[in-house]
Amino acid sequence: MIVKVIRTRPFKIILAVLLCLAYTHSSSARKNKCEEPTKLADLISQPKKFLNKKILIEGNFYSFSTLSLDYKPAERSSKDYIGLVLSRPDQKEIPLVELKLSASLEEFKKESISIDHGDKVSIKAKVYAVALGEPWLEIEDLEVEKSDG
Fold it and tell me: pTM for the full model?
């Protein structure tokens, strides 16, 4: 009987350690799910695939715009939100108007975000609608890396 306990105890300990490692790996993978940037081309070509998901996108800031505001099927009021446009990944001087980005105006002002044309941005956002066949995203976090020019 004592021999059985000695043989099974190390097995149980090893099994417990392996289960803990597997759980830790899977929960960290769930946490970091939107840490890998989504390709803008994939988002534009298959917007429904990303509906109701949080994603990370990277690009260059083009300008502010009202494109993502006050459109009833994907309502974000211009009183409460500000719209952003990124540059096309392949042509930096052409706006990527197929991507509708909106940020809370209050958060934008509170964070006092300074952003200029050409600045590199990293955006965590949720795709809250697909309207007109295009993805509509609400920005949850915006990081700006100033351009040299």
Answer: 0.73
